[in-house]
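Q: I have two molecules that I believe assemble together. Could you output structure tokens for the complex as a whole instead of separate predictions?
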Amino acid sequence: MRLSQLFFTTLRDDPSDAEMPSHRLLTRAGYVRQLGAGLYSLLPLGFRVTQRVEQVIREEINAIGGQEMEMPVNHPADLWRESGRYDAIGNEMVRFKDRAGRDMVIAMTHEEVVADLLRDIVKSYRQLPLIVYHFQTKFRDEPRSRGGLIRVREFVMKDSYSCDRDEAGLDAAYWAHHGAYTRIFERLGLDAIPVSSDVGMMGGSLAHEFMVLNPYGEDRLVLCEACGYAANQQVAPTTAPEPPADDELPVEEVATPDTTTIDALARFLGIDASRTAKAAFFVTGDGRFVVAIVRGDYDVNETKLVNAIKATGGLRPAQVEEITARGMQPGYGSPIGARDAVVVVDSLAARSRNLVAGANKPGVHLRNVNVPRDYTPDVITDIASVREGDPCPQCGGTVILRNGIEVGNIFKLGTKYTEALGAEYLGEDGERHPIVMGSYGIGLGRNVACVVEAHHDDKGIAWPAEVAPYAAHLVALGGNRDPHVVEVADRLHDAAKAAGDRHEILYDDRDESPGVKFTDAELLGMPWILTVSPRSLAAGGVEVTNRATGEKQVRAVDDVEAFLTGRVPTPA
RNA sequence: CGGGGCGUGGCGCAACGGUGGCGCACGUGCUUUGGGAGCACGAGGCUGUGGGUUCGAAUCCCACCGCCCCGACCA
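A: Yes, here they are, computed for all two components at once.
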């Protein structure tokens, strides 16, 4: 591809609204352009990278038996009513009516369509197992997109679906995907860590997210360097040391003016935060009022809380009036004297003796509050978030917390969708059984951005060869003084092109100064930069630079051509 | 949806009550050609939209729209 013809432009200055390196560089180098919040155009270079990523995924999913297909973006709403998600999902799903007035949705994912196809097509156990997948546009009207391509509203996702006779089949398909994902991310040059994760609104029994560590990541990960334990903080169990088994002392009021936070309270009383009980107030999507109690040195983990009380529709923070209406006082709250509230107490807080808790009166706390002597929990379970430095739940070592970006996920769905839609098969036993499903996603654009996050320097991008949009970047200098330069450059460009799409190179044939050409080559990030000039020819051929390492050497034109056409693996 | 910030040629910025400028990019010509070259000439803007204050608004006020960041949310 001749650079003089390519639909792109590079920018000298960083776009003012880009913070992440991937966003900055992909925009500056002419790979993407933003259309609106969470909406990006892929320019030809960006599209080629995405196709490379797509091809890696395709090869690995095919290798575990996946069959590629394509399902629609727009669905009849009735299908989503059958699964119950039409009402369960909030306004991140776009709904509209078609010209006939039929309710429609823009798909966020495709479990319903797959289940609908299964009930139509699969009749017998002989037709299972199956893995089907597609690359398809999703639209999710995120309340807030961010980080360039990291969190967008419209994106292409590889979503695959395993369809099995039973739990054992699902287990095999699940771990087959786990292996395929491991190979995919390795080929993309990403250090992705599988972490156990919440199943969220997908439902199901087991889920992993593949995470790459990144300071801009939206997820908090609990990691143990000693044993390799890795989990999303949303689900990582807390394992604090057992609190002392002190005798229960009598409750007493203590005046604590202006201590509406745990910090202020602990400082005022001169005690450690672990000697206090923290109350948080929520309302569930199904209208229940919840008081959550954790020890003062921990935070409430909303995911665990949602799961503990099966809060359909999630949680929102309670308003002040909702709290006081139930006999509690924000800032000085506890379940003592609470009415019409579901009381959920963290197991560690429940085991800790003689905590300081709110008295539900402004400026007053209670010493020596104990569960269940002083109030009755509805649920006692783990609802606290693991902190950095806590013991590892697996080996007892010390965990660290890091931010991560989710580059892929795998879910055991079970029969949630097939039962709802009646997707059954006739078994060997002559009985009808629901088909057992799994669902597995990888977002393309986010992976492209993560590759840049992992492979760049202060000059620009340095693509791994597997995903580079072009195999090399040919810089021709002094062509107007020396026709031999043009002759050699043209020959290399044509030979690479003739060797096939994977071998094609970018050829900077523009009438630009050497500085501009080198700077752009480093910004664009092809794995090899080939310089042809009177000087390089005098030195014996073509200067070959490894973009990632900066190593340079001059190679004979024939050697370079052998590399570009795939006859030898590397130019060096 | 709450909090904060910002909307001025393609990009980055200035002008902060008195007829909108700079750098880069862009076009033409000449010179230049191994690290974002030089000179000359030139093109490009209802200052996001609407209202208000004022003799006069890019500038002050109000509303709306858009974008970014933090939080809420996140299959």
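A: One point stands out. The first strand of chain A starts at residue 32 and ends at 36.
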